[in-house]
Specification:
The complex is a heterodimer of chains A (about 625) and B (about 1000). Chain A has about 625 residues and is mainly alpha-helical. Chain A is built from 21 helices and four strands. Chain B is α/β, with parallel strands linked by helices and about 1000 residues long. In chain B, about 25% of the residues lie in helices and about 15% in strands. Chain B is built from 29 helices and 40 strands. In chain B, the strands form twelve sheets. In chain B, strands 6-5-17-16-15-7-8 form a seven-stranded mixed β-sheet. Chain B has a six-stranded mixed β-barrel with strand order 23-27-24-26-25-28. In chain B, α7 links the parallel β10 and β11. In chain B, α18 crosses α19. The two termini of chain B are about 50 Å apart. Classes of the chains: A mainly alpha (about 625), B alpha/beta (about 1000). At the A-B interface, α6 and α11 of A face β33, α26 and β35 of B.
């Protein structure tokens, strides 16, 4: 691994103003997105009939793509959150890109349910808001569960993405301010960084909070595609009505998400020159993980057919047979090849090491997975219980333009995020380097207060070990308090400065509890207002309200976590703290010891004994 | 039925049938041509002119359906002065409360956007080159009535001869036309022309009994019914009446059940309802009839006609022998001969054989009653009409009234072009009207007074149900005015009559005089009832019975000699027998401009909006024709190109084509759809009923869009059959298990949720599949009642079905017998545990407290999940904004919301009617009566297939029928607990004929 400077150099290089190739690509993708908007407006004004969907196949490319994109959105949070929890080192290099992809993919995915609505203009009926008519949405509907799951997933992913970005944006801000380039970006980064300066109390709450985000996001990742799969599994159609669906969909989601990571990162790494940060071994690890998902999916395919036969159900059996031999027969070999047979090649080391092959295979998986989603949606609809209703589906140009636009939107969004925000998590990568450099243990001490005066002495260190030694030394001779500025989270500082564990965890717990109560309360309360019976069920059907409760838990837990973190870390704070230097967010460690002017010399003398790179006084 | 305004038949708020017409009569004296006032620049209801109409309440007028010559009794339901819906008149002796799809579509005829809205004329042929396209309608310019009448009068004055060709009329209008012709004193004739004139039947009856008439059949009294391609449940003479009779015959007591055998080359809708359908090659129909006849006469010991001319081996076909045995041994047997549109000697022979069969078992005089004949007997045979028109010259005037010879006799167009002055009097700007020099628009039957006598002694009355929509006049008044302007005013009994209405009143005064009722009371009663039906006609008519000896004396009897029955015929492989058939929807094509008639599926094929030709799989394979290949069918008289449909419904040597499409000038909806079957209609001289045609594959593709993807059941038990034997042997516990809607269907081992309670009502329906003949009247009734939009052929193309029908009647085949069909009326099942409801995110699909699966249209956001989760797929999505070309929107039912694009809609059991009667019962302070509420589909059904009612009401008909031994639930295993129960169709188990 490179050192700090190298990391900074590569990442900042990627943030440089775009060239003509980039602009051309953005314009090209933008056209595709404009096409999407145009086609959508045309569809809204004329009616759903302009699309190929009809009776009985009322869902087609739209819902198939929705499921596909939601799947794509899974890998980002998976990589960032789950791999963080299991302390998988290789995640850092690709986590930012994966998260960016997640955020964009959720937006793209979330668009499709809106596009497929017959009356888009009254979409707000689906939101639980206190309308004058006192009509609430039906929390028993899997579609409302979808709304809850996706909006929660979107919110949490955006927060997660943003929180992870804050120290890096601060670093980029300082870098730009130092070089004096790109004024507008400087301003943007200034606001977005929320006044992050890498002080001990910022890092302390931040680190804890980020862990809780990961802890909350992990079940969310698994749940979102489960909820999406229940859109189908709760229906009684042959081919949909199966308990297999949740794991089947989640595995597929991660499968395609990882494939999309490869599809996006392999070219991005080249284009943005991130070869040192994102290395072939990272792709190797992604491919290894995909072997696991491949096997799960292969199992699901097999078990689906087996269950159709084993159930003895006439409809299921005929349906399974029709799927394989009917007019949609072409899908099955395509899906099995794309999703199972080809990715199984990843067991060969040489395949995993060959980036071109990885890229091609990842695209095959994407095609296979999109086809699978479409196939699941349309096959069950076109061949259900009463044969006279059997139908057929052929997409029309509106659907094709819109789907094409969605691909453009994903690439466009990803390109913009990669160009405008640090494309790799600078501080995380530095932390990985850091953990190799600092091994020394320090004994805990009582609380050392932060600086109380705006004046004092600042010493700058290149080596974290020297910096920590200096802090250990200075904590006893700083009657007016001291502050540390570090480019990475430094866990030894916490005991060293007598800090306890962050109270953010209490916020998170309270938020989560409030969320569970709120979710159930909303569902049950609104059901009581209306008392409507659907499907012969009692208005209060606890089983399915669990989804509302769960999403409430995650959502409010995350929000409370965020608020707690901001409050305790005293963010946002727009003024630069005393003694702060732009290098402190890059590769230097700063120690500010507050002192009135009459103590400058004393303090300076002590600090000089800690072998700093330089010392300066703040007046 | 009591006096005016009394609420008979529990129609409550609706003024039942009879308004006081005195005021109208007075006003008519001032302006004889109108009832309501025409407001030319706005579409406004004529309620202002009709003080007896109360806004917000339904009014019902009894009138007579004139969509075909059957003359069914009709109730027009009026709101705010507009006809919304037409229904059967329950007290009518012909329709018994039912109405066929054609009758149901009457309002669309009234509001047809392509109706002629004012008089039109065009310069004579010499001047016609100068045209102003803006003001012209097909080369015609609008004229004021005065000018139009003056011009026609001029033409009449200069005419050498005058011919009047009208659709079938009896009574006052026929009298006026005849008198008009007489008073002008010109040579010529008045001819009543119908495209389907049953001339072979009449000719046969002429030969046999000296009476060229169509007798009244009493099928309900017979036990064995034998049909030789007579589509009597669809189009044959009086289909609604026959449908009712057929249902009666099929369901006379639990033990006793009539049987029907159909013999012919095509499995028509009627044949699909036969207990046995025997498919024979075309060209053999009359041989088959003769074979049976010979066997029957042998069995009955009567002289055998024409026996010697046929080799006995061909006749002694075991199937026919069995049919003959049953025919001869039945207590009452009736044979019906010949398809509707057949002409020529083969058809005549077939009709003769059928009637001889009736005679052989003594049916003539009892179940086949010549004392009452059908008005169709008065129509002019096509051959005569051809002769008449062939002689037309420049000096003649031809008045065509409400009929379309230019379409139905396409080879006579040249004659029509030759006539000096062609005057068209009618409602539609059809092919004939486009050839006319003057077009005089008249009231639609729903706007007009009139009388019609379909069967002898059945006097049906028509009354205006609303004010005239356009600048039209009554046909009778047009003739009266023309006579007056010609200086020869018409008079009745020496007295001048000012208007058609007066003439009608005079006639009915005479009719009433014979009953001894006070004239005004008689008139009011007739208005309320829809006519006078009581006059009993003696059963034994004045038939000249043909002597047995007479038949025996001639070696061939009245039947021409024939060859032996042979399964294959020596002909070139491309030569096939033609089979032309009118569908129940489009009939002879006059209704083709109605969206409902185009969009509702054809009964057997489930195709819409076009033509196709049926070919058997063997023929298709032989000629290498695939489904959807464009095929050119030609014979000496014409040539058409239509897509091929491969089906086992037709015999191997047949190509079948329906009438009704291929219009070039009827209106926007009809024009350019499909092909005109009349182009191929010939008076065939050979054995074949319709002659032979040559087939040629053009190489083009014309894909077909079926509204039912398949008719196979795939072992799913969707339409189920049982046999009388099984029914007899079963005990009460043998009935199939059903899961009741409501608390009774609760089973703790199966249900996750508590029993579903209902406070007051639980609406339910029972559908007797054995009664359903598949006519589709319910479908059209539903369109009319519920503002179901017509989508049009475009969105239906490319394999996409986007039609909006709330109630489908798909045909399904028997799992083992490929030619046995059951029709499945499929409305919303109003499940107790409806899968569509919980998936809706916004509670647009909810269960109401009366058990209805309700859809709240303005709540729907259009996710379509409900439709997907409905195992019956009875929900319909508005893929586009519905369009009603003006003034079709005037037909919209104000009690039912019209839905916009993006909204799911569905059958509601006509919730608006339920609420209407609930309110009514509340106002009257009484509980709802069982059977009081009839959803549109239930009301329309000619065979009483559907029964609707409250499951929670003790002893209601539905709750009794829920215990019926033939009951079953569709897809019961899904535990949706549907509230629609089906009763199995019955198929015979006795020694098979087929």
């Amino acid at each position: 691994m490179a050192d700090y400077e190298q990391v900074d150099q590569e990442v900042y290089e990627a943030l440089r103003p775009p060239g003509w190739t980039y602009k051309g690509a953005v314009a090209f993708l933008g056209l595709g997105v404009l096409g999407l908007l145009g086609a959508w407006v045309y569809q809204i004004r004329t009616g759903m009939g302009v699309a190929g969907v009809s009776f009985p196949v009322g869902w087609g490319v739209y819902i198939g793509s929705f499921v596909f994109w939601i799947g794509i959105a899974h890998s980002g949070t998976l990589i960032s959150a789950i791999l963080l929890l299991v302390r998988s080192r290789w995640r850092t290099a690709i986590s930012r890109s994966a998260e960016a992809m997640t955020v964009v993919a959720i937006v793209v995915a979330g668009m499709f349910p809106l596009i497929h609505l017959g009356r888009f203009w009254v979409v707000y009926y689906i939101l639980p808001y206190p309308s004058q008519r006192q009509i609430w949405p039906n929390f028993q509907s899997p579609l409302v569960c979808d709304v809850l799951a996706i909006s929660t997933y979107f919110t949490v992913s955006v927060i997660f993405f943003y929180v992870g970005l804050v120290p890096d944006i601060a670093a980029a801000r300082d870098h730009l301010q130092h070089t004096g380039e790109q004024r507008s970006r400087q301003r943007l980064y200034h606001w977005l960084s929320l006044g992050w300066h890498g002080r001990i109390d910022q890092w302390r709450h931040y680190g804890r909070s980020y862990l809780f985000f990961a802890a909350l996001a992990t079940p969310l990742v698994v749940s979102v595609h489960s909820v999406v799969s229940w859109d189908f599994a709760t229906a009684l159609l042959p081919g949909w009505h199966s308990t297999l669906f949740a794991p089947y969909f989640v595995a597929g989601a991660i499968h395609s998400g990882l494939a999309m990571v490869l599809t996006l990162l392999i070219p991005m790494r080249k284009l943005l020159h991130l070869e040192n940060i994102i290395q072939p071994k990272h792709f190797n690890d992604v491919a290894l993980l995909m072997i696991v998902t491949t096997l799960i999916i292969g199992y699901a395919y097999a078990i689906e057919l087996f269950m159709a036969w084993y159930s003895g159900d006439l409809f299921e059996r005929q349906f399974a047979e029709w799927r394989l031999t009917g007019p949609l027969w072409g899908f099955y070999p395509l899906i099995v090849t794309g999703n199972v047979l080809l990715p199984l090649l990843f067991v060969f080391r040489r395949v995993r090491a060959n980036l071109v092959l990885l890229f091609v295979l990842s695209i095959c998986v994407n095609i296979g997975m999109w086809s699978e989603r479409l196939w699941i949606v349309i096959s069950s609809l076109s061949h259900d219980f009463l044969p006279h209703n059997w139908g057929w589906y052929v997409p029309r140009w509106v659907e094709i333009v819109i789907f094409n636009g969605s691909i453009c939107l994903l690439f466009l969004g990803f390109m913009l995020l990669a160009k405008y925000f640090p494309a790799a998590p600078i501080s995380d990568i530095k932390l990985d380097i850091e953990e190799e450099r600092t091994k020394k243990q320090y004994s805990p001490r009582p609380y050392v207060k932060p600086s109380e005066l705006p004046t004092g002495v600042v010493s700058v260190y290149r080596q974290p070990g020297e910096f920590l030694d200096a802090v250990a030394k200075m904590r006893d001779c700083a009657p007016y308090g001291l502050d540390t500025y570090t480019p990475v989270r430094m866990d030894p500082l916490v005991p060293l400065l007598g800090r306890s564990k962050s109270p953010v965890r209490v916020w998170t717990l309270l938020g989560a509890l409030a969320g569970v109560a709120g979710g159930f309360g909303l569902a049950i309360g609104t059901a009581l207002v209306q008392g409507l019976i659907v499907g012969g069920k009692h208005p209060i059907s606890i089983t399915i309200y669990c989804i509302a409760g769960f999403e409430g838990l995650i959502l409010l837990g995350s929000l409370a976590n965020l608020i707690g973190m901001l409050m305790h870390a005293r963010l946002p704070r727009w003024r630069t703290p005393p003694g702060y230097d732009w290098q402190f967010s890059q590769d230097r460690f700063g120690l500010f010891v507050a002192a009135p002017p009459d103590r400058f010399n004393v303090t300076r003398q002590i600090l000089e004994s800690t072998k700093p790179e330089r010392i300066y006084v703040v007046q | 039925m009591a006096g005016a305004g009394a609420s008979g038949a529990g129609l409550g708020f609706m003024r039942h049938m009879g308004p006081d017409r005195t005021q109208d009569a007075e006003r008519q004296a001032v302006d004889p041509s109108r009832i309501g006032q025409k407001l030319p620049d706005r579409w406004i209801s004529s309620a202002r002119e009709q003080p007896y109409l109360r806004p917000g309440l339904w009014t019902i007028f009894a009138t007579t359906c004139r969509e075909c010559p059957a003359g069914c009794g009709m109730h027009a339901r009026i709101r705010e002065g507009r006809v919304i819906k037409c229904e059967g008149n329950p007290k009518h002796p012909i329709s018994h409360g039912g109405l066929c799809p054609r009758g149901q579509s009457a309002p669309q005829g009234l509001y047809d956007p392509d109706r002629v809205r004012g008089p039109l004329g065009r310069p004579s042929a010499a001047k016609s080159k100068i045209r102003n396209p803006k003001s012209e309608i097909g080369g015609h310019r609008p004229l004021p009535w005065s000018q139009a009448l003056a011009e026609v009068t001029d033409a009449l004055k200069n005419a050498k001869r005058l011919f009047i060709v009208s659709d079938l009329q009896t009574g006052t209008l026929a009298e006026i036309m005849q008198q008009f012709h007489n008073s002008l004193g010109l040579p010529g004739a008045v001819a009543f022309y119908e495209a389907f004139d049953y001339e072979p039947l009449r000719a046969a009856h002429q030969k046999l009994f000296g009476q060229a008439a169509l007798p009244r059949y009493r099928l309900q009294e017979c036990d064995f019914l034998l049909s030789f391609g007579a589509e009597f449940l669809e189009t044959w003479i009086s289909n609604v009446e026959f449908a009712w009779q057929f249902a009666q015959m099929h369901h006379r007591g639990p033990e006793y059940r009539g049987e029907m055998v159909s013999i012919g080359p095509k499995l028509s809708m009627t044949a699909a309802n036969a207990d046995h359908f025997i498919q024979i090659p075309a060209g053999q129909e009359y041989r088959a009839a003769l074979a049976i006849l010979q066997e029957v006469t042998r069995l009955r010991g009567a002289p055998v006609p024409a026996a010697e001319s046929n080799p006995p081996s061909a006749i002694r076909h075991p199937q026919f022998q069995e049919v003959a045995r049953r025919f001869a041994s039945a207590k009452n047997a009736v044979a019906l001969g010949g398809p509707v549109a057949a002409t020529g000697p083969a058809a005549e022979n077939l009709a003769t054989a059928a009637m001889l069969l009736n005679r052989a078992v003594g049916a003539v005089g009892t179940t086949v009653d010549f004392s009452q004949t059908h008005a169709l007997s008065r129509t002019i045979p096509v051959a005569q009409l051809e002769q008449m028109l062939a002689g037309l010259t420049q000096d003649d005037v031809l008045i065509v009234h409400q009929t379309n010879p230019a379409y139905s006799l396409p080879h006579l167009r040249a004659h029509l072009e030759r006539v000096g002055s062609l005057v068209y009097i009618g409602t539609m700007m059809n092919e004939t009207a486009r050839m006319a020099r003057w077009v005089l628009p008249v009231h639609s039957p729903l706007e007009a007074w009139g009388d019609y006598e379909p069967w002898t002694g059945v006097h049906c009355l028509m009354q205006p149900t609303m004010g005239a929509l356009h600048d039209t006049r009554h046909s009778g008044d047009v003739f009266l005015s023309l006579a007056e302007q010609c200086g020869r005013p018409l008079s009745k009994a020496g007295e001048r009559v000012a208007s058609f209405h007066d003439w009608l009143r005079l006639n009915w005064r005479q009719l009433g005089a014979s009953t001894g009722t006070e004239p005004e009371t008689f008139w009011q009663q007739s208005l309320q009832r829809g006519g006078v039906f009581e006059q009993e006609i003696g059963r034994i008519g004045h038939i000249r019975p043909i002597g047995e000896t007479e038949i025996a004396a001639s070696p061939v009897g009245p039947i021409s000699p024939i060859g032996p029955i042979s399964p294959t015929e020596a002909a070139s492989p491309e030569t096939l027998h033609l089979w032309l058939w009118p569908s129940i929807k489009l009939f002879d094509g006059r209704l083709a401009n109605r969206g409902w008639m185009q969009e509702v599926a054809e009964r057997m094929s489930t195709l819409t909006w076009g033509s196709w030709v049926d070919l058997s799989p063997a023929t298709a394979q032989r000629l290498k024709i695939a489904e959807g290949d464009a095929v050119e069918v030609s014979n000496g008289s014409g040539c058409v190109t239509a897509p091929a449909r491969i089906t086992n419904e037709v015999a191997d040597n047949v190509v079948a084509l329906a009438f009704g499409q291929g219009h070039t000038g009827l209106g926007e909806t009809a024009n350019g759809r499909g092909v005109n079957g009349f182009l191929l209609r010939t008076r065939s001289e050979a054995d074949s009923l319709f002659g032979t045609v040559t087939l040629r594959k053009t190489g083009a593709r014309m894909p077909l869009t079926y509204l039912s993807a398949t008719q196979e059941q795939h072992g799913r038990g969707i339409v189920r059959w049982t046999t009388p034997e099984d029914l007899r042997s079963m005990t009460k516990n043998d009935a199939e298990e059903i899961i009741w809607p409501g608390p009774r269907g609760y089973d703790p081992r199966r249900d996750l949720y508590a029993p579903h309670e209902y406070p007051e009502h639980r609406w339910a329906m029972v559908i007797d599949l054995d009664r359903c003949i598949g006519c589709g009247a319910c479908e059209v009734a539903c369109y009319a009642e519920n503002n179901v939009p017509v989508v049009g052929p475009g969105p239906l193309g490319l394999g996409r079905t986007r039609e909006m029908t709330w109630l489908r009647v798909p045909p399904y085949r028997h799992p083992e017998e490929p030619l046995r069909v059951g029709f499945l009326p499929l409305p919303c099942q109003h499940c107790d545990a409806a899968p569509c409801e919980p998936v809706c995110p916004v509670f647009a699909a909810v269960h109401n407290e009366q058990g209805l699966n309700a859809q709240i249209y303005n709540r729907c956001i259009g996710t379509r999940y409900c439709s997907h989760n409905c195992p019956y797929k009875v929900r319909r999505f508005n893929w586009f904004d519905p369009k009603w070309r003006e003034p079709l929107h005037l037909q919209l039912n104000p009690d039912v919301m019209a839905r916009c694009r993006g909204v799911m809609e569905k059958c509601t059991f006509c919730i608006q009617r339920i609420h209407y009667y609930e309110r009514q019962a509340k106002v009257e302070g009484r509980p709802l009566r069982d059977g009081e509420i009839q959803p549109a589909c239930v009301q329309s059904c000619p065979t009483r297939t559907l029964v609707f009612g409250d499951l929670m009401q003790e002893g209601s008909e539905v709750s009794k029928l829920f215990e019926h031994p033939r009951r079953y639930q569709l897809l019961k295993e899904l535990n949706t607990k549907p509230a629609v129960i089906y009763l199995k169709r019955i198929k015979p188990q006795r020694p098979e004929i087929t």
